[in-house]
Amino acid sequence: MVDAKPDPIALPADFPVEWDSPEDAGRFWSRDPTHFPSSLPLLALEFVSRCQGGGMNRAFEHYGRPIRMHRIRVNCYIYNTVRTVVPPAEIAAAAREGEQNTLEAWPEIWDRWETEWMPEVQAHLSWWENFDLPGASVTSLRDHLSESIERSVRCWHMHFLLAPLITGAGSAFMDLYTDLFGEGQYLEAPGLTLAEDNKSLETDRELWKLSQRLRNADDGAVLVESGSDDDLRNELGRSLDDFLLKYGHRSGDGSGFAGLSWFENPDPVLAMVRAYGRSDSPDPAEEHASLIIERDRVIAIARGNLEGYPQEVRDQFDKALLVAQQSSRLQEDHAFWIDQQSLVRTHYVATEAGRRLAGAGVIDDPADVFHLSFEEVLNALDGLMSGDTDDKSDVIRDRVADLEYWSQIQGHLEIGVRPANGPPESVSSRGLTRFIGDGITQGDDPSLVNGNPASHGSVEGIARIVKNISEFGRLSPGEILVAPTTSPPWTPLFHVAAAVVTDAGGVLSHCAVVAREYGIPAIVGTGVGTARIKDGQRIRVDGDAGVIRILD
User: Fold this and answer.
1) 3-state SS class at 465
2) pLDDT (0 to 100) of residue 186
3) Total structural domains in the chain?
4) Is the pLDDT of residue 1 over 70?
5) Of 39, 251, 364, 523, which one is least surrounded by beta carbons within 10 A?
6) Whole-angstrom distance, CA of residue 8 vs CA of residue 79
7) Is 50 a member of any domain?
8) 10: how many CB neighbours lie within 10 A of its CB?
9) Sign of CA dihedral 260, 263, 265, 270
10) pLDDT (tens digit, 9 = 90+) per residue, 148-188?
């Protein structure tokens, strides 16, 4: 048998890579389109590297994983590589020990989240909320920004302490279920892990209540169909304000850091309220309750089919199901508290820094702050205190132009040198693959698009391409949502869409989990859905086969 050799990755001419070091050029780097489908401004990229990356590596250390994640910025996209922290001869043994530590932690993660980690996250959020941003001195604001970064790292440390349960437990249950009942039940297993409730479902219920308030108003039908956003704001009044105060500290721009939150710009909320009002949509609580009844019916059948098995097997099934259901809820709940709110709270601090710098003429617009590095922002605030207001306009113009250029070119998924051998097979690696998705091969027929089957059912409808949170209003009831990826702020669209298709993701991704929670077909990880499918085309989505047929 011939040993495999490292494989340099050929890149298209329009995506050249300038390496900072020969060592970087010899490594394997990958891009994560599930979480970061688009190019990002510098400050958002640094947040991902410092806070998310720092939190991840602390969690790796906690579980005894012999690896650390490193990130670089290439053409305004973020790329990741894994480096080992033990000698080559010790890697295999250290990896096995880290995997065992991770699996042993599963049963306690949910309890630690409820009793320890979630209260700590909420305490950090209260710290941010209680700080007077507009009234702070420049010195206090600078210190607050520095501490915000440290608190964000800690929040993301907790995120990645939770991650093994989120990505692994559902996958392990799928393995057990198909071992017991056959590969043909592959998509049935995730349906059994449907969560009783979560923060995304809760948010959607409150949105629906806003839509009903609007429908029941005098001239409600006119407001829904032709009223301006200002008309809707005026009619909803305090109800909308209360909703935004509780659920609006979230963003869907791909990083959760640079884009405006719902609280700052409620247009996506109003778009969903209008869509719910137009569709005469049923109460989402009742819809979900019916899905839970069906879930419990299938679980009862599965338990009945296990009656002849040893008690040890039946106990294993029940334990695996329990942690998988905890995983399903935790995926949405942790994102509400950590992925969205901790990022957005730090975003507010950076935005206030941008206001101060714009007021002093250092930058032209407060939003320009997101084109600076953290070090540059801190130094600029130092300059305000000392009277040194160095104009950053030229630097920012160059960076804006750079970002605009690369945003038109899709970042290559892999750069550098592909390793001779992939990571060892394990429970964790299978779970991660099912979360981010497998590479999908497309055939020669231009009318067919292949993807990972994610949620049962088949439906025909009009495809509506929605690439970011600002386009939520384009989706009409009964249309098929086609998107690069989805995150928790996108969840309300699932109550409007007839089906969902994404470029990124696997059977345990956010999109797949939420589609099953709403009982609509879904195909994820196509890689080419938003490119091959044209806005307004009629398509058929077969969520069981993982095939989309373009009908016109």
Assistant:
1) strand
2) 79
3) 1
4) no
5) 364
6) 16
7) no
8) 6
9) positive
10) 999 999 999 999 999 999 989 999 999 999 999 998 887 89
Instruction: Tell me the CA distances in angstroms from 24 to 19, 28, 43, 140, one per residue in order.
Output: 6, 8, 22, 38
Q: Are 107 and 326 in contact (CB under 8 A)?
A: no
Specify if 538 maps to a domain: yes
- pLDDT-derived band at 258, boundaries 50, 70, 90: confident
Mean pLDDT of all residues in 522-531: 95
Asked whether residue 229 carries a pLDDT value surpassing 80, the answer given is yes
CB 169, CB 105: distance < 8 Å: no
Convert the pLDDT of each residue in 381-401 to its tens digit: 999 999 888 899 999 999 999
**CA–CA dist 51, 412 (Å, integer):** 24
Cα 348 from chain centre: 20
Residue 354 lies inside a defined structural domain of this protein: no
Burial classification of residue 212, based on how many CB atoms lie within 10 Å of its CB (0-12 exposed, 13-18 middle, 19 or more buried): middle
CATH number, domain of 495, equals 3.50.30.10
Cβ neighbours around 504 below 10 Å, total: 26
Alpha-helical regions (H) of 280-373: 284-305, 311-334, 341-359
| 499 in Cβ contact with 459 (< 8 Å) | yes
Q: DSSP 3-state assignment of 81?
A: strand
- Cβ atoms of 332 and 248 closer than 8 Å: no
- Measured in residues, the chain has a length of 552
Question: Are 371 and 377 a contacting pair, CB within 8 Å?
Answer: no
Sign of CA dihedral 104, 109, 112, 117: positive
Tokens read off for 493: 């669209």
Beta strands in 194-304 (DSSP E): none
3-state percent helix, strand, coil for the chain, nearest multiple of 5:
55, 10, 30
What's the rounded Cα separation, in Å, for the pair 507 and 520? 14
Question: Residue 475 is part of which domain span?
Answer: 437-550
Say if residues 208 and 281 touch (Cβ distance below 8 Å): yes
Q: Supply 262's token pair.
A: 């719902």
Evaluate whether residue 467 is within a structural domain: yes
**Digit-coded pLDDT (tens) for 33-48:** 988 999 999 999 999 9
